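sorry for the late reply, my laptop died twice this morning and i had to redo everyting from scratch. anyway the thing you sent over, i finally got around to it. pasting the sequence first so we're on the same page, its 623 residues, then the predicted structure underneath. double check i copied it right bc i was rushing
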Amino acid sequence: MQLPLFQETHEPDRAALDRCARAEVVALDVETETRWQGAGPKVDYGLSYSADVTVIAFAWRTGTQIETTALAAPFDNAIRAFLSELFHGDTLIVAHNAVFDLRQLSKLTGGIVPPRIWDTQSMARLLHPKIDVSYSLLGVAGMLGIPVPERQVALKGQRGKLHLLPLEQTLEYAQDDARLSLDIYEKQIALPADPELIVWECRAVREYCIMAARGIRLNTPFVERRLIALREERETVAARLRADGLDTPGSSQARARYLYEQKGIPLPKWEPKSWFFTRAGRRRLSATPGARVELGDLSTGSYVIEAYLEDSSAYADQLRDLAAYLEIDWLISTLEGLIDHAALDGRLHSLVSIATESGRRASSYPHMQNWKMPAMAGVAIGDDGFTLVEIDYSNAENVMAALISGDNNLAAACRAEDFHSTMAARYFGEAWERADASQRKNLRGMSKKITYGTAYGMGAERLGESIGVSTDEARRLIQAKDAAFAQVTRMRAAAQQQVRATNLLKLWTGRPVAVPTPFVAWNYLCQGGVGEMLKRAIVVVSETYRARGMRSRVALDMHDALILEIAHDEWGDALDLASDIMAHVTPEALMQRTTPPIRWIAQPNLNENQGKWGAEQPHFPYG
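ok and here's the structure:
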């Protein structure tokens, strides 16, 4: 790697920093080293925790004018002290994608995260959500009608090459971004909004910043041993596949020929929303109505192979090796990436942020919300004296559907000892009553597909294919479900009508979400509602732990669960406290709308946890 012969320097403007420190609101922008430095992930290195901060820009208002200044690496102790003082005070810190900026700056502040944060990206999704828009800095500025200098627009496309620019140009670019973030903030605070929602969002963003700054410990020796075993296992499975005619199981084209030519699986029917097709395939077939499906249109990812492995599939036995190969290959790729991301300090500093239209969180750099348990058990571990524990909301999306619809029948099913058997009785009626144990097991499995498939918009034809019944019978089952849960049916129809009119819905908290099509309206209400619940649980659990002087913390959220890092000397108290908060995070008045009332079940299953998030760590009994 070629480095400059001479290191450019930039003297800080101390007077400007003094004025900045006295401002009530300060916007900042961080630029990082984009060239791989020999350690850390090679792809998108500048977005990883390993990347050094190269430039920090600030913007604040003095009277009617916006002032800016910028700092360039290396950062001496005086600059580190300035940052720590700025972050310790009552100054409101504004940033676009604040979790990234403050995660990187935490390396300069000893992990300090400001008490008050306004993330203009997160707030854009809350205060002025729209479909088919970019929530990038320039995208949000455009949504609010804020003009952007041409030089700033031009440089956005060169962010990965900032190291090739003169330092002064990079400093100017970062100051432009900080100034624009402040402009966006001032527009956003003038928008009509529920103050309570804004406060929740600011509190949540701070927790995401704390989680990203601290990270989770990677069990590096365990991962290295696991990789050796997995590579050997992958080669063993690949050898069996080669003997069966699949010479290159890592090739998607070769897998398509293997599936649809050698194994004789019929080509999937073209459906625009089908996961059997690649993005390019969907584009081609959508642009050419009536075109024949070709092998190049088809996805051969693990989710496709898993669909062919269902119990009723005639191809399940033939494809087990291919499914195993893809699972092992995914594990190897994931674990290798995690080792790269933990290169700096042995920890995973994932960026947790609201990055979906429904309001649910996603993680990136590294992505941790796609972890599959128990395959990833033991990969992340608590610090010495701590153990990771998962507390999962039981049946979260169905309970949320009952909560927001006020449907008594669904609320009763959610309170039943066996939810899916109760649902099966609703769907199949007399057939369920007459069925023996073996038949009930089959009907229960079908009911799960009916419950979840139709919730995500599955129609009669696809449902029939999924559960092995005729389209007419599938249609009857959907009608039975709609009749059994009439309040859900009415509210789903109302939500779809609202989306047709406005492309907007409001979650149970009042948070607006932009919804692209009526097809996903109910899904957004339920998934987004669970996302709001998890967000508030993260905030309240974290703040309560700190208020009580406890060392336990929320380390990550994972779909419908919180991953807690529990101090061994706080074990029972910390788990009880988190469970109680999670069970009561939605207002009691909402939970009392149905008969029986809604009840959230959020208890740690410590026996299961030993084989999941608690693997390779000390284990304690609950209570």
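The chain has a mean pLDDT of 93.
thats about all i looked at so far, will dig more tmrw
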